[in-house]
Amino acid sequence: MIKTNLNPSPKQLPTDIATIRKNKHASAATETVDLSLSLLQYLVDNSQPVGVTDLAKAFEASKATVYRHLQALVKHGFAQQNEATNRYEPGIKLLQLGEALRERFTILARARNEMALLREATDQAVSLSTFVNDEVIILELLQGRTMVEFGVKAGTKMDFHATAHGRIALAFGPPRLLETLDAKPLKKWTPKTITSPLTLKKEVTAIRKRGWATAANGIVWGVNGLAAPIFDHRNKYVGAVAIIGSIHLITAKPPARLIHLVTDTANRVSRALGNPDPHS
What confidence score (pLDDT) does residue 80 get? Predict the structure, then answer.
């Protein structure tokens, strides 16, 4: 008797049939994402809440399909449903994301010229960070006029305990940041990296008092950073500007001139963001 497999696995299918099935699945997934994003855009563009029936007509889709997508958007906060009318409108999550993006790019726009001036004055690399979703993210790096180039790119996340940018966030950001450091061991990048939560908290207290931070040999041996906080019009910490260079040029106890240049740059960016008196 000859046995025939009527339900072959994907590995047994001819290459062309397996590819067709794979492409169909990918296409279906893409269409699902497209519809969700289109519904979201439609809600944003309409000044009034919209019902499932109207949305189904607008997108030539079934009510069940539209309802399923809307519930997913509601679940993640991108849409909300009016309990009285059952109609849908944009959710608060969109406002939160928009605010985060607005602040991020506003900082960069206001800081670019000041960063260039700081590099001119110090010859060191200059970096700008922002604070988004409880993370310190590099927005921009201007290479210095020294023999050393740094590989930090826009989008790089900074360690809280081992970088000047991160320590500024601990000193001037939400208090919960310090509390989370007790939850797991701090990574020891070099023999000089602070890994004791108690020592780090003492350093953060000192940073808060003096208004600037360093992290000599914290991530890379022989490298130091000197950072100062940036505050927006609400006097809220939103990022930092820093110079990065050799420990021989930016010493563990930086020269007063460098401290003044960095803190003055941060203050000018803060004022450009609508804060007339940073730190007050």
Answer: 94
Q: Report all structural domains of the chain as residue ranges with CATH numbers, in order of start.
A: 15-93 (1.10.10.10), 103-272 (3.30.450.40)
Q: For residue 259, what pLDDT is reported?
A: 97
Instruction: Give the confidence band of 23 by pLDDT, cuts at 50, 70, 90.
Output: low
Instruction: Give whole-number Cα distances, 175 to 68, 136, 235, 273, in Å.
Output: 39, 15, 16, 23
Angstrom distance (rounded) from CA 223 to CA 251: 9
* Cβ atoms within 10 Å of 85's Cβ, excluding its own: 11
**Residue 160 burial by CB count (10 A; 0-12/13-18/19+): exposed, middle or buried?**
buried
Whole-number Å distance between alpha carbons of 23 and 25: 5
Given this model, what pLDDT does residue 65 score?
A: 92
Q: Helices (DSSP H) in the chain: which residue ranges?
A: 15-45, 52-59, 63-75, 92-122, 164-172, 176-180, 197-210, 256-272
CA 95 to mean position of chain CA atoms: 16
SS (H, E, C) 18-79: HHHHHHHHHHHHHHHHHHHHHHHHHHHHCCCCECHHHHHHHHCCCHHHHHHHHHHHHHCCCE
CA distance 114 to 161: 26
Name every residue whose Cβ is closer than 8 Å to that of residue 58 and which is 6 or more positions away in sequence: 42
| pLDDT of the residue at 153 | 79
Please provide residue 132's backbone torsions phi and psi, each rounded to the nearest 5 degrees: -135, 130
Model confidence band, residue 151 (pLDDT cutoffs 50, 70, 90): confident
* Contact by Cβ (8 Å): 130, 103: yes
